[in-house]
Amino acid sequence: MTQISYRVPMRQLLTFQLEGLADELVELQSLDDAIHWTAIHPPDSYVMLGRGSNSLIRFPRDGLRVVRLTPNSIPIHREGNLVQLPAGGTMKKMQDVLIEMGLSGLEFGAGVPASVGGMVAMNFGCWGECMADRVTRIQLVQGGKVEWVPASDAHFGYRASRFHTTQEMVVSVELRLTPSDPLDIRQQVQGAIQRRLASQPLRAKTFGSIFKNPSGYFAAQLIEQAGLKGQRWGDIEVSGQHANFLVNHGVATYQETMAVIDHVRAVVKDVHGVELEMEVKQL
């Protein structure tokens, strides 16, 4: 049954923990909930959110309604090397499940505080791998109707898919993975987590990379070479650990965050002549 909470702090919804309150948090706990919700609520009446690790909600705004799928909204199903995972499932939980199943292929996402659906929608990738390499099809709900679409119709690109521009709700995803020894998978998962912790401020209040890497450049290097690494404005810091991350040290607002992001873009443009494009999604 759909669960609705009122006056929910956004710091509970976003890993960057912006200040503000969502008027409603709607949690869909089953496929039927998703079908019923989309049948009677137009997409422009709510904000669809995963675990909030790559999102920035525009605020303040009247009547802010946030909708998300619970981790167990869709059952996990395996058929050979194919496994269907719920879009609302966290990467941490899904890694544990895949280790038990002895299925390898998503280790590159270990340590990312995101949902499966969010990682598919943005085509998360790193270290030469991305979600599009594993996805075979995606289950969608729109206007009270359910359909599966092949990965070829998802229009995957660099940190992009069709789901950023359409009004479809991703509810589950099917992946083709590789059988492997659970102990080996666990070691790879732990290795990926340690690699992230060594280079990214994952234990701080932050979202993922602020900007996409421009063609031929690394955004972090451009920001660092522009003298912005470790710089702080109020509660917001350009991370001294990784220049393409922002850290919220206190009670940052949406306006303050966007002011810092715009400043970083302007300085990099002035110093390098390169225009940075946001990777974090504004909702």
Task: Give the N-terminus to C-terminus distance in angstroms.
Answer: 25 Å
Q: Give the helices and strands as they follow along the chain.
A: EEHEEEEEHEHEEEEEEHHEEEHE
Q: Return the domain count.
A: 3
Spans of at least 5 consecutive residues whose pLDDT stays below 50 are none
Based on secondary structure, the structural category is alpha+beta
CATH T-level topology of the largest domain: Uridine Diphospho-n-acetylenolpyruvylglucosamine Reductase, domain 3
Largest sheet: 5 strands, antiparallel
Kindly report the average pLDDT value: 96
What is the CATH architecture descriptor of the largest domain? 2-Layer Sandwich
Q: In DSSP terms, counting alpha (H) and pi (I) runs of 4 or more, how many helices?
A: 6
Regarding CATH, which class of the largest domain?
Answer: Alpha Beta
Shape: globular
**What topology, given as strand order, has the largest sheet?**
6-7-13-11-12
Q: What is the β-strand count?
A: 18
Radius of gyration: 19 Å
The amount of helix comes to: 25-40%
**Could you tell me the strand content as a percent range?**
25-35%
